[in-house]
Amino acid sequence: MSQLRALDLVRSYGRTPALRGVTLDVDEGEILAVTGPSGCGKSTLLHCLAGILRPDAGQVLWRGERLDTWSEAARSKLRRTEFGVLFQFGQLVAELTAAENVALPLLLAGTGRREARETAVTWLHRFGVAELADVRPGEMSGGQQQRCATARALVTSPRVLFADEPTGALDSLTGEEVLTTLVRVAREQRTSIVLVTHEPRIAAYADREVTLRDGTVDHTGLGLDAPLIGGDR
């Protein structure tokens, strides 16, 4: 069942087009890989789906509602509750400890400080970095930071996680470890993942792959048995 849908998305930066009419669905609990060469529009598509950017034309539907017409405040609230966002370099707050970083979405949603910390430590434990609860990002390795960032992105048990090159700054082994845990946790709680990557080995973790080229969906690689974009199977 599709819960997130893009219909004919168009987005440009000045005179440079990034998306040229992209249509796709993301099903509940599905891991969807968005692949393609650098500059093809992958990150722009993810940002439009997550409500970070508004498309110039087209629609983003979240459970049947026009997400692209919502106010910035409403879209921000959605990203604190039902959406999670994970970037390539984690973007942890340098002044906060690991536990404080992970607890931040809970605190913003009104959870009490003690409960938020306890939940944050539980999530750090799930990603194998509970011992870093009181450590700040500057004292962590890149892999440790990304584990903390992944825990923060999932701490609210979002319905959809948007992951933009989440292992791009990590070595192969660390990247595989982080992604394996991410996928396992997502499966457990039925979180959909929109996974932007240019690496075939990372895309292999997905249930389905959509390739962008020059701002459009590239259908040339789809065989007769491949899922059709737009939700029909």
Helix and strand layout, with pairings?
Elements: E1 2-13, E2 16-27, E3 31-35, H1 42-49, E4 57-62, E5 65-66, H2 72-81, E6 83-86, H3 98-108, H4 113-126, H5 142-154, E7 160-164, H6 172-189, E8 192-196, H7 200-203, E9 208-213, E10 216-217
Parallel strand pairs: 3-8, 3-9, 6-7, 7-8
Antiparallel strand pairs: 1-2, 1-4, 4-5, 9-10
Helix pairs in contact: 3-4, 3-5, 4-5, 5-6
Helical content (DSSP H or I, runs of 4+): 25-40%
What portion of residues belong to β-strands?
25-35%
Number of strands: 10
| Biggest sheet architecture | 6 strands, mixed
- How many helix segments? 7
Distance from first to last alpha carbon:
11 Å
Output the strand order for the largest sheet.
6-7-8-3-9-10
Shape: globular
> What is the chain-wise order of helices and strands?
EEEHEEHEHHHEHEHEE
The overall pLDDT, averaged over residues, is 89
Structural class: alpha/beta
Note poorly predicted spans.
222-233
- What's the gyration radius in Å? 17 Å
3D architecture notes:
This protein has 233 residues and is of the alpha/beta class. Residues 222-233 have low confidence and may be disordered. It contains 7 helices and 10 strands. Helix 4 packs across helix 5 (142-154). The protein has helices at residues 42-49, 72-81, 98-108, 113-126, 142-154, 172-189, 200-203, and strands spanning 2-13, 16-27, 31-35, 57-62, 65-66, 83-86, 160-164, 192-196, 208-213, 216-217. The strands form 2 sheets. A 6-stranded mixed β-sheet has the order 6-7-8-3-9-10, sandwiched between helices. Strands 2-1-4-5 form a 4-stranded antiparallel β-sheet, with helices on one face. A hairpin with a 2-residue loop joins strand 1 (2-13) and strand 2 (16-27). 42% of the residues are buried. It is globular, with a radius of gyration of 17 Å.
